[in-house]
């Protein structure tokens, strides 16, 4: 009985330590996902959080400027102007009409400053049978809004 | 051909339903003949699913582009081995492949045990058939791989379209590891069905004795080995192909594969508590159940895209099927356990904190904590959306913070556990067994500290790795010395004899050593360096001991892809060492781009160079170079783990006579403490199978 008690005490210590570590890791790495329409209605307290927003790149909106690239994300009729300030080259899949996932912060002027951009070609990552050329689609194969899509991995992952 | 394949699948479902229903009827009516027909039906499923798989492969090899699955994942120019592997390139084929591997396992389980365990096997057959029914239902009615292109016209006539060529296989999958990685990982996932079936059967039939636990353990080892290799191959593929400089990102699909691996690892350890001491019976049964459920969950995460992932498989509607099935499985497990919980009563209690038992308990505790943390982090976006309405994800820092200390504590137990005695370990034995390994570990740590290693976790990892390696070597040495001196052979021959006599124990040590190597490799990631720079011809960047000099850029494009390639000269200490050619391709047909990484891999470090693209500002090429120490040890450790598992599965050389002789010998010389101590591992062996 004594050994069992000791074991329980040891277990409790271990689990509490791990829980504390988990909490620290959680606060360090939690990221919010929002759709563009949600971004417009966020309470003030959440406006400054680091977040991920996904949408489609508006055709013709990509413009190069000094120090980065500007473009507009669209989703369900809502638009979000984005400035990319990261140093990584954008993936090749980033082009007009592509699905993009941007990570960064919202600015007071309503624009979004992205430090990371991930993009997925609108047509396919994995060829789906429905998008085979010359065949009418059986089902709409567009992913649900708000779903993250990572074609290129962000290069900061896996370090440390 | 599609009709043939569909019909084979439909028939397979019918036969599986008979195996299930007939099996239950056989158990209830206690008619062995009925049970036998059900068993034969269970085995026949294998043949029928094989026909379906052969049909779809025939479609791939004959370029039958009227099949929508074939046209979507193959083209005429695709090399033959990729046509073969295109079977698992998409949803429908992957699930058919799952079913097929499961049917192979079921066939073997039923065949190999057909004359054994007459009380147990009918239950095993029913459980296996139940799982097969689920997957065959998906294959037949939800994700049939035999859909033809085309459709019905207004009059209801079928118009089949046959394309002149298919749209090809995703270039990311056109890599040799992608031919073997999915089958091996799937062999792991599906393999856990067999121990699940045996555990469920033993519980339902209240099978007396512990024989079933041996079958469950051995079949778990098979699946565990495949799962280990599958995970490592996946990590290696991510490293070699995706071009982001790492091998593990706590991606949902990676986590999905890791979860059953962790619980299976916990089971493989805690099962010894049941075999030796009759403890933890409920726990063990639940570990097997949970492992199976995590396999189903993992498959559904991979196949349904519930949690977003780099693997980004097409989202689909089959998620609800999987979650319904998971619910049913959970319910069956709960009922089976509740009705038979007295069957699982423990025979013994924990006697001391410093004992083998408690090392296993701690091992299980933190493995479970790890799997819980990984599961929680993986499902967090889904959970947070359900609870708070906003989708939140957690990243690698969360997983690292929890799992790194867990991993190091496990490493510690790896060294300590096997040397602790059952029940209670005396202080004397502790000192005797641990003095040298501990001294060695601390000495290694002090040396590394003196040489400038200051990071906490890598330092702990180094100390523990040396400690564990020394304890393992000590175990081999002590045992082998006794055998060698008895037989008058060399120490090396003694090691061989020792190992073959108790393959499970010494195979286990080899596995532990492989894990140590993997840990060493992973700890290298604390020292990863990388640098990214815009480069023109003649530019140089330096990284660690290397200088990377840009010699040339060209576009070696073909009619299949357009490409940007850099020619980089690698200099070390001013001397030219080699040329590396990182490349960035965009395939014209699919517009999918692919990074061709250039890696120079040595045991000490990998130099990993990526052509990252063009700078968004200047349009100049950007080169990203990584210096990743010790990565190679991970892959090498994986090979050692596989060898160890193979060894542990190998039957023991029968040696009851020899053992008795050894026992008598140590008896006779027991006046010498040296000899008594040396023979201790041998005597402890007798309990193993």
How would you describe this protein?
The complex is a heterodimer of chains A (about 160) and B (about 700). Chain A is an alpha+beta fold and about 160 residues long. Chain A folds into 2 domains: about 1-30; about 30-125 and about 145-155, Nucleic acid-binding proteins (OB fold (Dihydrolipoamide Acetyltransferase, E2P)), CATH 2.40.50.140. Chain A is about 25% helix and about 30% strand. Chain A has a 5-stranded mixed barrel. With about 700 residues, chain B is α+β, with helices and mostly antiparallel strands. Among the domains of chain B are: about 1-175, no CATH class; about 525-630, Tick-borne Encephalitis virus Glycoprotein, domain 1 (Sandwich). Chain B has helices at about 1-30, 30-60, 70-75, 80-85, 90-110, 120-140, 175-190, 195-205, 210-240, 250-275, 280-305, 320-340, 355-390, 395-415, 425-450, 455-485, 490-500, 505-525, 630-650, 655-670, 675-685; strands spanning about 150, 160, 390-395, 530-535, 540-545, 545-555, 560-570, 575-580, 585, 595, 600, 605-615, 620-630. The radius of gyration of chain B is 28 Å and the shape is flat. Chain B starts with a helix and ends with a helix. Strand 1 (about 30-35) of chain A pairs antiparallel with strand 3 (about 390-395) of chain B, so a sheet runs across the interface.
């Amino acid at each position: 009985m004594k050994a069992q008690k000791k074991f329980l005490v040891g277990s409790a210590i271990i689990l509490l330590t791990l829980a504390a570590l988990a909490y620290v890791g959680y606060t360090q790495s939690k990221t919010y996902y929002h759709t563009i329409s949600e971004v417009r209605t966020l309470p003030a307290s959440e406006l400054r959080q680091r977040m991920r927003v996904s949408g489609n790149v508006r055709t013709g909106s990509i413009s190069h400027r000094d120090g980065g690239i500007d473009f507009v994300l669209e989703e369900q009729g809502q638009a979000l102007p984005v400035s990319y300030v990261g140093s990584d080259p954008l993936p090749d899949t980033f082009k007009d009409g592509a699905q993009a996932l941007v990570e960064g912060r919202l600015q007071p002027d309503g624009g979004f400053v992205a430090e990371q951009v991930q993009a997925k070609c609108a047509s396919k990552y994995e060829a789906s049978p429905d998008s085979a050329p010359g065949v009418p689609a059986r089902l709409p194969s567009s992913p649900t809004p708000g779903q993250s899509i990572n074609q290129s991995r962000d290069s900061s992952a896996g370090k440390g | 051909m599609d009709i043939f394949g569909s019909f084979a699948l439909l028939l397979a479902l019918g036969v599986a339903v008979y195996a299930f229903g007939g099996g239950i009827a056989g158990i209830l009516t206690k008619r062995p003949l009925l049970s036998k027909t059900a068993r034969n039906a269970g085995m026949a499923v294998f043949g029928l699913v094989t026909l379906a798989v052969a049909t779809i492969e025939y479609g791939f090899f004959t370029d039958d582009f009227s099949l929508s699955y074939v046209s979507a994942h193959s083209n005429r120019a695709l090399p033959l081995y990729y046509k073969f592997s295109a079977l698992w390139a998409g949803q429908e084929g992957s699930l058919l492949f799952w079913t097929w591997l499961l049917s192979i396992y079921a066939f073997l389980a039923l065949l190999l045990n057909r004359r054994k365990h007459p009380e147990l096997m009918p239950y095993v057959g029913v459980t296996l058939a139940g799982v097969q029914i689920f997957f065959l239902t998906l294959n037949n009615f939800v994700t049939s791989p035999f859909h033809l292109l085309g459709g019905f016209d207004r009059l209801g006539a079928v118009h089949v379209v046959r394309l002149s060529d298919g749209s090809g296989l995703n270039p990311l999958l056109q890599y040799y590891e992608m031919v073997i990685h999915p089958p091996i990982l799937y062999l792991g996932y599906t393999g856990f069905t067999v121990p699940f079936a045996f555990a469920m059967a033993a519980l339902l039939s209240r099978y007396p004795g512990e024989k079933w636990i041996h079958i469950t353990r051995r079949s778990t080892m098979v699946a565990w080995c495949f799962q280990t290799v599958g995970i490592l191959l996946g990590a290696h593929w991510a490293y070699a192909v995706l071009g982001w400089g790492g091998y593990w990102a706590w991606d949902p699909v990676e986590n999905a594969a890791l979860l059953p691996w962790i619980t299976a690892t916990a089971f493989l350890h805690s099962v010894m508590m049941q075999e030796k001491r009759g403890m933890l019976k409920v726990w063990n049964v639940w570990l097997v159940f949970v492992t199976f459920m995590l396999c189903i969950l993992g498959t559904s995460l991979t196949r349904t895209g519930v949690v977003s992932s780099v693997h980004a498989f097409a989202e689909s509607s089959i998620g609800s099927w999987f979650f319904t099935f998971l619910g049913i499985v959970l319910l069956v497990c709960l009922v089976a356990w509740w009705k038979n919980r007295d069957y699982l009563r423990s025979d013994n209690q924990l006697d001391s904190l410093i004992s083998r038992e408690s090392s296993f308990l701690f091992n299980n505790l933190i493995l479970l904590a790890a799997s819980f943390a990984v599961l929680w982090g993986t499902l967090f976006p889904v959970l947070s959306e359900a609870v708070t309405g906003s989708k939140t994800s957690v990243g690698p820092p969360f997983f690292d913070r929890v799992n790194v200390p867990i991993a190091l504590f496990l490493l510690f137990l790896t060294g300590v556990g096997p040397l602790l005695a059952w029940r209670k370990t005396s202080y004397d034995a502790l000192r005797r067994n641990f003095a040298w390994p501990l001294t060695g570990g601390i000495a290694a740590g002090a040396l590394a500290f003196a040489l400038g290693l200051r990071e906490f976790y890598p330092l702990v990892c180094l100390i523990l790795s040396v400690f564990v390696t020394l304890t393992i070597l000590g175990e081999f040495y002590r045992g082998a010395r006794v055998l060698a001196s008895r037989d008058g052979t060399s120490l090396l021959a003694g090691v061989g004899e020792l190992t073959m006599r108790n393959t499970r124990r010494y195979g286990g040590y080899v596995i532990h050593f492989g894990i140590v190597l993997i840990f060493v490799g992973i700890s290298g990631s604390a020292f990863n360096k990388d640098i990214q720079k815009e480069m023109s011809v003649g530019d140089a960047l330096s990284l660690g001991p290397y200088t990377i000099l840009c010699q040339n850029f060209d576009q070696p494009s073909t009619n299949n892809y357009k490409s940007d390639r850099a020619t980089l000269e690698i200099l070390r200490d001013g001397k030219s060492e080699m040329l590396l050619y990182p490349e960035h391709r965009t395939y014209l047909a699919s517009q999918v781009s692919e990074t061709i990484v250039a890696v120079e891999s040595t045991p000490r470090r990998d130099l990993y160079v990526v052509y990252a693209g063009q700078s968004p500002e200047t349009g100049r090429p950007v080169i990203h170079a990584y210096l990743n120490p010790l990565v190679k040890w991970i892959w090498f450790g994986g090979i050692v783990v596989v060898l160890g598992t193979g060894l542990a599965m190998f039957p023991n050389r029968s040696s009851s006579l020899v053992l008795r002789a050894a026992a008598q010998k140590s008896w006779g010389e027991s006046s010498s403490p040296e000899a008594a101590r040396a023979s201790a591992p041998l005597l402890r062996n007798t309990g193993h199978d």
